[in-house]
Amino acid sequence: MHIPVLLKEVIEGFNPKSNQNYIDCTLGEGGHSLEILKKILPAGKLLGIDFDNRNIDFVKQRFLKEGIEEKNFILVNDNFSHLSSIVEKFNFKDISGILFDLGLNSYFLDESKRGFSFRFDEFLDMRFDDKNPLTAHDVINTFSEDQLENILKTLGEEIFAKPIVKQIVETRKHKEINTTFELNDIILKSTPIWYHHRKIHPSTKTFMALRIFVNQELENLEKALNVSSEIISLHGKIAVISFHSLEDKIVKQFFKKLVDQNTFKFVNKKVIIPKWNEIKQNKRSRSAKLRIIEKII
What we know:
With 297 residues, the chain is α/β, with parallel strands linked by helices. 45% of the residues lie in helices and 14% in strands.
């Protein structure tokens, strides 16, 4: 079972009450949503969104086993970038809180066989959604040297973007780059030995950049945050858990803009991070940052 990150802090920040309505834009395995639901019964409703249909089926059964009635939740298999149309479709109103947990589900890294991790020899797919026509394989094998370098620099903050991309372009002159292991070998060849002995694996940033680009993660986040600020009710709260600097920068700047406009206020002026005990129990929580704002006008 996936362990929900900063669960106590999310619940404290939202302070959900009976009969309120909430949206979980990143349902996952339903850890955050279940605790919210327990607080908003008997008449409160939760709208849960997830692009992975497996999670929808799993969470429905989980909620029912916990005694939550179907009248109290709506689960939607979609991307949160479509938040506006989803809310409209289900006529979901009087929203007291909207949650985003931007952590990558461990299923995609460990089990999906879609090439998200350099630990397994898999085809370079990296799509969360099969309907997305663009794969990491397409990007690696068809994008120009300048385009690839820009992706690695801006989305991966990769300091060795130039030599990595040069090696990619040189390699693909002779044969297509098809698998994660092939790409990993290129990265190892292109980077100095000292870079291989740090806490972060030398391929981490390149793989992250490709995943973010293929799935338009940052564009989708910006779009959904804008919609959230429009649909949230007065005194409703938006909470975002981010895991890398690019996401956190978008959230921080967007929240600051709303606060500067005097339409929202910070619930916690300082960013909330996991305590040592949580990091010890769940290592993937170590880079989590939680920011919460409340609508005041």
